[in-house]
Amino acid sequence: MRYRRFGSTDLTVSEVGFGCARLGGVFQGASKSDLLRSLRLAFEGGVTFYDTADIYAQGESEALLGEAFRGRRRDVIVASKVGYCLPTQRRLAARIKPLLRPVVRLLRLRRQSLPGSVRGALAQDFSPPYLTSAVEGSLRRLRTDYLDVLQLHSPPPEVLERGEFLAPLETLKRAGKIRQYGVACERPEDVRLCLRYPQIASVQINLSLLHQGALDAAVPGCLEHGVAVIARQCYASGLLTRSASQLAAGPPPADEVQRRERDAVLRFHRIAAGTGRPLRETALQFVRDTAGVAVTLVGMRTPDQVADCLRDLAGAPLSEDERGRLRSGGSARGNLSAGGRRSHAGHGSQAGERICWASVPSGSVITRSQCHAPS
Ligand SMILES: NC(=O)c1ccc[n+]([C@@H]2O[C@H](COP(=O)([O-])OP(=O)(O)OC[C@H]3O[C@@H](n4cnc5c(N)ncnc54)[C@H](OP(=O)(O)O)[C@@H]3O)[C@@H](O)[C@H]2O)c1
Questions:
Q1: Given this model, what pLDDT does residue 120 score?
Q2: Do the beta carbons of residue 24 and residue 60 sit within 8 Å?
Q3: Low-confidence ranges of the chain (pLDDT < 70)
Q4: Centroid of ligand 1 to alpha carbon of 237 (angstroms)
Q5: Burial 144-178 (b: 16+ CB within 10 A, else e)
Q6: Where are the beta strands (DSSP E) in 213-358?
Q7: Strand-pair partners of 301
Q8: What sign results for the dihedral spanned by CA atoms 356, 17, 137, 150?
């Protein structure tokens, strides 16, 4: 594992970070002891960066991190996010998770099969009082008195334009409750808005072989401004981990976006085969070695996935020539979109973050009284 400076801050981070969105969901099937084992295996393999959010698994993701790293807090960098609010249904579900899990297993229920009314719509709140109280909740679940990085969770552009979040975040920083703050952006265009504020230390963006838009639209600006880039979804939420035969054997794509994505992944399989390595390893290395990326998140859950990730990292780096072929190989027109809300809703694997984008109208910000942080 190699380590990098986190933008122009004084934080040092492992080049790969553990994406914790799938830790603890009712539909995941992994036991708590397996999840804790995955976290410890990653730590032993040198991973020091952990990306979570208050709403991941209704707070359980943060709680698992708190448990895994009790007594080792100073050895890890914890980045969490706030801004989404849990609907009542999900808060209730969180309380009865131990009862729900066996039912879900027995009935082989999948999250996507539940009607939206059962799941409940997510809303957002970036008001100063909400941000402050949500951070307190995160600190409690993580069993810590500070966050290394606090990120606004997918704020709409108008929230970024208004900049009302700066005052409460600066107050939290002065109080020592957060060390740095940044923004987990939905679209590369949002990164440009973030760069207006020198106080913003990091941005998180979707970047993979399949969604290369941020390479031109976001990364160079961040490099220039000393802003750390957290690259997420390097496997395109799992699409790039599927074998060519799995893709060919699967059901036909439901729409044009999915068809183009599948065709692009098949093309990447052919390019990766030409480099003599599997696509999963190629996908990870492509993002990890992008100049300007501080940390590449890998969405993991099981100890086997962690072991795969550590093995893939140890492979020989891609040559410039190989990178060049991957850079232009996604589709006839270079690559697919950068992956905004619309394209995420297109393939079910976006549920990896367990947020139903379709339920969050772009730009929706609701009032604090309508909003609940995970308890
Ligand atoms: N707006 C935001 O702030 C936002 C949005 C999305 C993601 N994120 C962050 O980014 C992280 C990564 O996102 P992500 O999980 O959607 O995308 P990802 O890292 O591109 O992909 C994760 C997917 O790859 C699969 N996978 C992982 N290791 C594998 C292996 N060794 N072999 C086969 N399959 C493997 C997982 O399978 P399983 O399903 O079987 O585990 C999962 O479906 C999240 O955890 C979260 O921290 C943030």
A1: 65
A2: yes
A3: 26, 88-91, 100, 103-120, 330-375
A4: 5
A5: bebbbbbbbbbbbbebbeeeebeebbeebbeeebb
A6: 228-232, 293-299
A7: none
A8: negative
- Structure-token pair, residue 273: 């085969």
Hey, what amino acid is at 25? G
d(CA 139, CA 176): 12
pLDDT score at 375:
53
Q: Which residues of 206-219 are buried (b: 16+ CB within 10 A; e: fewer)?
A: bbbbbbbbbbebbb
- The answer to whether residues 326 and 286 touch, using CB atoms and an 8 Å cutoff, is yes
Q: Which two tokens stand for residue 124?
A: 């957002």
Q: So what CATH class is 3-86+122-370?
A: alpha beta
What's the burial of 306, exposed, middle or buried (CB within 10 Å: 0-12/13-18/19+)? buried
Q: What is the DSSP letter of 364?
A: -
What pLDDT score was predicted for residue 369? 46
Going from the Cα of 177 to the center of ligand 1, the distance in angstroms, rounded, reads 28
Residues with CB under 6 A from ligand 1: 19-22, 51, 81, 153-154, 184, 204, 232-238, 241, 297-301, 305, 308, 349, 352-353
Domain ranges (residues) in the chain? 3-86+122-370
The residue type found at 318 is L
Ligand 1 atom with least separation from CA of 298: 19
Residue 121 has a CB neighbour count (10 Å cut-off) of 16
